[in-house]
Design brief:
Layout (H helix, E strand, L loop, with lengths): L2 H16 L10 H10 L5 H13 L5 H6 L2 H7 L6 H19 L3 H5 L3 H9 L6 H11 L9 H9 L9 H9 L6 H17 L19
Helix pairs in contact: 1-12, 2-6, 2-9, 5-6, 8-9, 10-12
């Protein structure tokens, strides 16, 4: 069985068991960008609270977020943890978005994905997972997002080494799958759900997992 066939079997099994995940839960592409920073090293529940705070303050547009005094921004995003660091990183991302496209995300989405990814990785505090999340979920580009759940699932199934580099894991998908943003979006979201619900760090629930039958 080819790698593509294997991956699509995994995807169909997760989709059939769990349904479409409809991820990322945001009202605008800009909110996705903000969430991609806030979700670093924290649980999604904290991100939801921080996003709700920003929305309540009317600060979920680039211009209003840019105009917030730093202490007020830090307090609003406190539930997401590391609030001072993340306020600084949000500021850096805002600088990039203004400089690169004047906050016109649809315009940015029409550019070359490789170039935009390289630019995002040049923003302080934006690593590969954050960059790919923005590319895929905010800009609708075919960039596969890799996270700890992806690594855990693939390594437990013997598909990649445990110490595989981020780009090696990303290429594992992108080298063989059609460059379909909707597929990449839902495939990654399915892996997150499986990793969170079944493929736990300790005491994985393999017998209940939709990917359990694929274990060798």
């Amino acid at each position: 069985m080819s790698r593509r066939e294997r991956l699509m079997e995994y995807y169909r099994s997760m989709l059939g068991s769990l349904g479409h995940r409809n991820w990322w839960p945001a009202k605008t592409p800009f909110e996705v960008c903000v969430g991609a920073i806030l979700t670093q090293n924290t649980a999604w529940t904290g991100v939801e609270k921080a996003i709700a705070n920003l929305e309540g303050a009317g600060a979920l547009t680039p211009e209003t977020l840019r105009g917030l005094p730093r202490p007020e921004l830090e307090e609003l995003i406190r539930p997401a943890g590391y609030f001072r660091l993340k306020a600084e990183r949000l500021s850096g991302l805002l600088d990039y978005l203004e400089r690169s496209c004047g906050f016109d995300l649809p315009e940015l989405s029409r550019r070359d994905m490789g170039q935009v990814r390289e630019e995002l990785l040049g923003v302080r505090g934006v690593g590969p997972e954050t960059a790919d999340s923005i590319l895929c979920y905010a800009l609708g580009m075919p960039s596969f997002v890799v996270d700890a759940y992806t690594r855990r699932i693939l390594s437990r199934h013997g598909l990649v080494p445990e110490d595989a580099h981020y780009d090696e894991l990303r290429d594992y998908f992108m080298d063989v799958l059609d460059p379909d943003p909707a597929l990449f979006n839902d495939f990654h979201a399915q892996l997150v759900r499986v990793g969170n619900r079944f493929c736990k760090t300790r005491k994985p629930l393999c017998e209940e997992c939709p990917l359990g039958p694929f274990l060798s």
